[in-house]
Specification:
alpha/beta, Hypothetical Protein Ychn, Chain: A, 4 helices, about 35% helix, about 20% strand, globular
Length: about 120
């Protein structure tokens, strides 16, 4: 099964990105044959910025994204969204690729399920 997770909110301020990544990590642990795809849009592209610092005891989106990637998940960030926020030319977390609506469209039609946060 292939599951596409769309994230639209900033990495911090709400718990949408956190909950989306919790779902992705749990899917990878409990359903190892499931392919997990994550597409970052709007303010969620900030999730892909490396060197995030969070206080002890708080979730860290960078670590969570790296966990998904290290387990074979694919993560792409909307190019238009990264450009609008001035981060398109900054280095992103290793394994995150800049993408576009055509690739999101392809992932969507290929996915068995699409979940939006």
């Amino acid at each position: 099964m292939k599951i596409l997770i769309l994230i639209n909110d900033a990495p911090y301020g709400t718990e949408k990105a956190y909950n989306a990544l919790r779902l992705a990590i749990t899917l990878q642990k409990e359903h190892t044959s499931t392919e997990v795809l994550i597409f970052l849009m709007a303010d969620a592209v900030g999730c892909a910025v490396p060197n995030q610092t969070t206080p002890n005891g708080y979730y860290n989106i960078e670590r969570m994204l790296k966990s998904v990637i290290n387990r074979g998940g694919k993560v792409k960030a909307c190019g238009t969204c990264t450009d609008a926020r001035g981060i398109k030319n900054l280095p992103l977390i290793e394994g995150v690729e800049i993408s576009n609506m055509s690739e999101l469209t392809q992932w969507t039609v290929e996915a068995d399920k699409v979940v939006t946060f």
